Ankyrin repeat-containing domain protein
Amino acid sequence: MTAAINSHVQCITDLLRHDPNKQVLATFGDGVTALMPSVMAADHGHTDCVMALLQHRPVQQVLATFGDGVTALMMAADHGHTDCLMALLQHRPVQQVLASLGNGQTVLMPAARRGHATVITELQNLQQSPEEQVLAPFGNGTTALMMAAEQGHTDCVTALLQHRPEEQVLA
């Protein structure tokens, strides 16, 4: 996991040469699986590490969650790491985009809150991107559009209004 956090792609590559399935699926004492390196690499924007890790059991990695349901895609969106986001979306994009935390937070919400319009645009450019994402409410009823507007991210507001604008404005 520390190799992924610190962008040591050669270490990751070397480790994966030795029984990659065991490396990718190893469990630590606290029950955390080694699938978390893809989450940590995405969190830190290390696209090369994400791509190296996705060479082994990619579906399990992109669908893996940690904490309260956080995925690698959510971490990449939260920090505006578009290259990591695009690498992750090569595997099961619909399932990843549909994932939400227990409180209803979707992958669009952190991107909207933090002003990552490029991430929002990439997510909405997916042919399979479900339009329900733009209307999905957070636990308190707040939508991605409301989050972007509250923070003054006009580029995000513009991007979000490309899908079902009437329904969003009335939400």
